[in-house]
Amino acid sequence: MAGSNGPNWDGLLKWSLSQSDGTQSTRQLSDEDRRWFTEAMQAQTIDVVKRMKEISTVMQAPQEVLDAQGVTVKDMEGLLEELQEHVESIDMANDLHTVGGLVPLLGYLKNPHASLRARAAEVVSTIVQNNPKSQQLVMESNGLELLLSNFISDSDVTARTKALGAISSLIRHNKPAIAAFRLANGYAALRDALSTEDVRFQRRILQTVMWPQSLGFLVY
Question: Which partner for 146 in 9, 96, 109, 138 could form a disulfide, CB atoms 3.0-4.6 Å apart?
Fold first, then answer.
């Protein structure tokens, strides 16, 4: 659910695609078009931070406030999906904590709706992937504990799978996180979870187990 004052990503995308997908004849950009496009891109870059602040504010709102404003679960799924797109940039991922969005995002790992728990885990996975700074920030905010809780005990297999995906991204190239994972009996939880009948879930478990083994960590 993009805000009415948010970036017009759709308009920019349609304009870009029309230049390359054959819907318009190929042509050289005029100076005016080139200037407009440059200004538009600069505006989008500035607005991303503003938009992340807006999404962070919504995530901090109590459920009764969201209900009163007519914000649905589907709306929140859309906001989290949009946030994930923004934090694909490492700079934006690191800025999420600065704008006050990381803690409320982690709070959504405890949301009563499974779809929102799963979506929040996906965003966390994107934030920490190959990003030591955000890995540290998530660890300091007890993100590993929250993800482990969902992986071990969530009643929804999709939420469990997404939590495990985020754990995998969090501990990759992150020795302190691997050590914390081991101390929290994470590997025992992985072994126990292999009894699931969900093939996709089993595959994700094996991927998580095998990566630390390749670095010489004992998975016991």
Answer: 109
**CA R_g for the chain:** 20
CB 101 within 8 A of CB 59: yes
| CA-based max dimension of the chain | 63
Q: How far apart are CA 14 and CA 193, in angstroms?
A: 44
Torsion angle (degrees, nearest 10) of CA 176, 139, 145, 204: -70
Tokens for 178? 């691997």
Tokens of 144: 């590993």
Dihedral pair phi/psi, residue 162, rounded to 5°: -65, -35
Give 194's pLDDT tier (boundaries 50, 70, 90).
confident
Q: What is the dihedral of CA 48, 50, 55, 57, to 10 degrees?
A: 160
Nearest to 12 by CA among 30, 27, 32, 33: 33
CA pair distance 143, 167, nearest whole angstrom? 9
What is the pTM assigned to this prediction? Answer: 0.74
How far does Cα 76 stand from its chain's mean position?
13
Distance of CA 125 to the CA centre of its chain: 5
Site of tokens 């405890």: 110
Report the b/e string of 69-78 with b at 16+ CB within 10 A.
eebeeeebbe
% of the chain at pLDDT higher than 90: 59
